[in-house]
Design goal:
With 185 residues, the protein is mainly α. Helix content is 74%, strand content 0%. α1 crosses α2 and α8 crosses α9. GO terms for molecular function: DNA binding; sigma factor activity. It comes from Rhodoplanes roseus. Belongs to the sigma-70 factor family. ECF subfamily.
């Protein structure tokens, strides 16, 4: 099942604003996506539909109770996917699924991949970027994270290419200082 990011994000934003209908619709659409996600992963471990349904419910509950942590400025599906992955990994640990329970071709996809470090790093990066002035944060986001060229970022920001380069340089220097300060404390 493909995911319609703009539609799901619109539902989440409306749900956060108190729209109960949007919240129900969001959870319904996510349950369909999560069901397919879990069934595909669990089939590789010999687990059944009932286990997938349990994980769907756990993930939906986590999405519901943690919805206040979602940042509407960010895409929704990576946030949902991170929750789904954590629930899957917790389940696999709880049920002691190991690489020996899975075919060699699927072992890396199911058991060995734990993106917690990547998610934690992304959270830390977001937190650190949040400390920067808007122009520095935006320049770093567009060029270093989103992969735009300096010229594209300049056009998008309505700034000169030199200003983008300076903001990136100063922003990265400020991030380095902030990281060094955190490591000392």
């Amino acid at each position: 099942m493909s995911v319609n990011e703009p539609a799901l994000k619109a539902l989440m934003v409306a749900a956060l604003a108190g729209d109960a209908r949007a919240h129900r619709e969001l959870l319904q659409q996510l349950s369909s996506y999560l069901r397919g996600y879990y069934q595909g992963r669990l089939a590789r471990t010999g687990r059944g539909v009932a286990d997938a349904e349990d994980l769907v419910q756990e993930a939906l509950m986590a999405i519901h109770t943690g919805r206040h942590t979602y940042d509407p400025a960010e895409p929704l599906t990576p946030w949902v996917h991170a929750i789904a992955r954590y629930k899957l990994l917790d389940y696999l640990r709880r049920t002691r699924v190991s690489a020996t329970d899975v075919g060699i071709d699927e072992a890396e996809d199911v058991v060995a991949v734990d993106d917690r470090v990547g998610a934690e790093s992304a959270f830390d990066l977001g937190r650190l970027l949040g400390r920067l002035p808007d122009r520095m944060r935006q320049a770093i986001q567009l060029v270093k994270i989103d992969g735009l060229s300096v010229a594209e970022a300049a056009a998008k920001c309505g700034a000169s290419e030199s200003a983008i380069k300076v903001n990136i340089h100063r922003g990265l220097k400020a991030l380095g200082t902030a990281i060094a300060r955190e490591r000392k404390s």
